[in-house]
Amino acid sequence: MWQEVLAEEFFGRQHAGHPTLFYVDDDVEQELRHGYGLEEPLARCVGRFLRLETAEPYSALEDYRWRRRQQDKDGVPAFLPLLACSVIAASRMVNDRNHRATAYHARFSELLTGDEKRLGSHHYEPISRMWQVLASWQHSQKGARGQCTLPAPADLPSNRSMIGFAQSQALLSGADRSFLPKLFRSLREHGTTWPLPGETLLAQIEIRGMEQHFSKNFRNALQEEEFRPFLAKLIGNYAASWDGSDELVPTGVTRAELLVRLDAGRLGWVARLRSPEQKERIELKGGVVLERLGDTAYYEVTGLPAPSADTLTRSVRRDGDGLVLSRPASSVLVLARDDVLGVWAATDGFRPGEAHVVLAAPTAQRDVQRLLDKAATTGRSADTGKLAWVPQGWSLHKPVTFDDAVTLRRALQEVQGAVGLLQPPAQFKLRLEGGLKLAPSLDPHLYLRGGEPQVILPDATEGTGTLLVDGKERPELRKAIASGRPVPLAVLRLEPGRHTVSCAGVEIGFATADQAVVEPKTTKVCGFTVVDGKASASSSLLDGQALPTGITGADCTSATTQDAAAVMEPCRRDADEVLFAAADGRLWTLEAPEQPDWWTERLPDTPAPLRFEAGFHGVGGWLLERRSGRWKGRPVNPGTPKPRSAGNPRAWARAVLNAQQASVEPSWAEYVQAAKELDR
What is the model's pTM? Predict the structure, then answer.
């Protein structure tokens, strides 16, 4: 229940378009408990699922998260209660009689176990990974579940590389965020450039003695030299999203972003609405109307003065029924090609390797020129042509490209000023982007040969990571890796077939082909699996991994049959789930065959049998059955597990770890150990 409460409270649809902080302290925990009628305190609830006497005390929570993900791939990752406890521990970090202000792990352990020494720093790494999974998920929702405020690993001090995620969410309380518009307004009245960079905002808070209006966690972070840069980035991002009103857009009111677009030599407005409910027409106060552009999240905007030197440097806000259209004031405008609109449109940050159009007001031109001189590959010189659409007095640079992301990030940190908030989007995990997909309905990771995707590296490995393609380091990719850019795989001229990319212990698979036959969509495909050129003796349901290499239809002339005798095993019909984990990494879900119609016609008094038979031809492994939440397993010629050789090793590992209590036999212990090695 705590998972659902935290998901709704902090990552619900009402946060669409809003910067979100997962702020939980003791007071917030009590408010949630009483407000939602929860009987068990959060920490006690989480503590019941800890395996304290094992090397992996959070494994039960990780297993639960994988089970929930199989049911809802787009849902909030199901470990929010544990992360909420980690934030509570961060909120308690003050000097007292027992602990120093920096003693985080003692507070975390005491919160969950009652003993400050049972959970130490060596247990905490899985939680830092959970934070990065949460951040990556929130980015994937494109703002529909709130805009992520979690720092990238590279933004954290080296001595806070794990606990810094939780600390970042405890820096600004709800009262702090309510005070921010008053602070911004007082500074905006005396400044000519907005938004101000975060470091300048912090300096102004100290000069004016305004830190007394903030929470103790904010004040403590303000005094820490190592954590101060992230605090500056956090408050700077809030300043960049402030639309000039007396309050941040209230939670529960959808925020539509007003963006500038460049189309056919003319600047205009377009709105982006991140809500799951996309109306065709929206009317706002002041005669402003939004008309949806096709089946997209973008809207044509009418009723506003066109973008100009005057309107761009002033904030814009129009209210409607449950919706606010807003744009913060800005003295720098960055445009990039938008794949959905097909034109140049405003973007939140520079994208390494892509072309940009940069417009700067007179007050920001010095900062823009300094940044371009330090990091830009092209577009350093201002375009002196008199283009009618360029705002009066503004400078124009085009096309601006940054081929080295590492240099760009360093230059942005040095220059700060009006461009300090234009950091490239944070990357939390290894992933594939772009590429020419073949028949996504057949295989979502099948690409046309020569149209392979790009590899996006996590920020934590930027410029220093070792990327392996099919287990080998490729010298052709070193330049892109060192510069922190997306790594193009097309330059490798890979042969058709299955391939892998891996970095820092994470592996992703994909396939290439010269062509693909697009077959009708089917829920289940029956065929013959092929291993080492040999086809199985009998047919079976082909899963997503076996489908591309399996044989379907009647043509089996290119493969030889296996001679191994079939092994028949009885399986319970009343089991909630029946799986077969093969030694080579394949995983099957066994479904009970339905009774023929003639059973009830001819044998009305005969009860249905309790079991059904499953045949295993030339394959060994473990048969797993789950009943009433408990797993039981039986070996079927188990052999030695080698899960990397075939199938989907990650799905296999998750299934084995979920069922690790299924047997005490040594053979099963080998399978569990192999799964743990894969899951690291």
Answer: 0.65
CA distances from 102 to 93, 107, 127, 180, 447 (A): 6, 10, 18, 27, 49
Cβ neighbours around 131 below 10 Å, total: 26
Q: Kindly report the backbone phi and psi dihedral angles of residue 399, in degrees, each rounded to the nearest multiple of 5, phi listed first.
A: -80, 135
Residues linked to residue 473 through DSSP beta bridges, in sequence order: 468
pLDDT of residue 307: 93
pLDDT of residue 337: 93
- Nearest alpha carbon to residue 617 among 567, 669, 672, 652: 567
The radius of gyration of the chain's CA atoms, rounded to the nearest angstrom, is 28
Q: Are 216 and 243 in contact (CB under 8 A)?
A: no
Alpha helices in 267-404 (DSSP H): 309-312, 365-375
Segment 504-545, tens digit of pLDDT:
878 899 999 988 765 555 567 778 888 777 778 777 777 766
567 SS3 class: strand
Specify which of 52-56, 248-252, 422-426, 624-628 reaches the highest per-range mean pLDDT. Answer: 624-628
Beta partners for 300?
A: 270, 291
Rounded Cα gap, residues 390 and 59, in angstroms: 57
> How far apart are alpha carbons 23 and 18 in whole angstroms?
14
Helix (H) or strand (E) holding 616: strand 611-617
Tokens of 550: 């399996």
Assign 369 to helix, strand or coil.
helix
Instruction: Measure CA 135 to chain center.
Output: 5
Distances (CA, A) of 479 to 137, 403, 404, 476, 545: 29, 10, 9, 7, 33
> Looking at the predicted structure, is the pLDDT value of residue 558 above 70?
no
Number of H helices, E strands in the chain: 19, 32
Over the range 410-421, which residues count as b (16 or more CB within 10 Å of their CB) and which as e?
Answer: ebbeebbbbbbb
Residue 337, burial from CB neighbour count under 10 angstroms (0-12, 13-18, 19+): middle
Read off the pLDDT of residues 272-323 as tens digits, 9 standing for 90 and up: 987 767 788 899 988 999 999 988 889 999 999 999 999 998 888 888 887 8
Chain mean pLDDT for the chain: 84
Enumerate the β-bridge partners of residue 292: 299
Strand partners, 571: 612
Contact 468, 502 (CB under 8 A): yes
Quickly count: other Cβ atoms within 10 Å of residue 197's Cβ: 25
Task: Give the β-pairing of 497-503 and 468-469.
Answer: antiparallel
Query: What string of H, E and C letters represents the secondary structure of 184-208?
Result: HHHHHCCCCCCCCCHHHHHHHHHHC
Q: How far is CA 615 from the centre of its chain?
A: 41
Q: Tokens for 543?
A: 């899963």
User: With contact defined as beta carbons under 8 Å apart, do 418 and 367 qualify?
Assistant: yes
**pLDDT value for 601:** 60
E strands present in 145-186: 147-148
Q: Which is nearest to 524 in space by CA: 542, 537, 550?
A: 542
Q: Residues 10-23: what's their mean pLDDT?
A: 83
Q: How many other CB atoms sit within 10 Å of the CB of residue 142?
A: 12
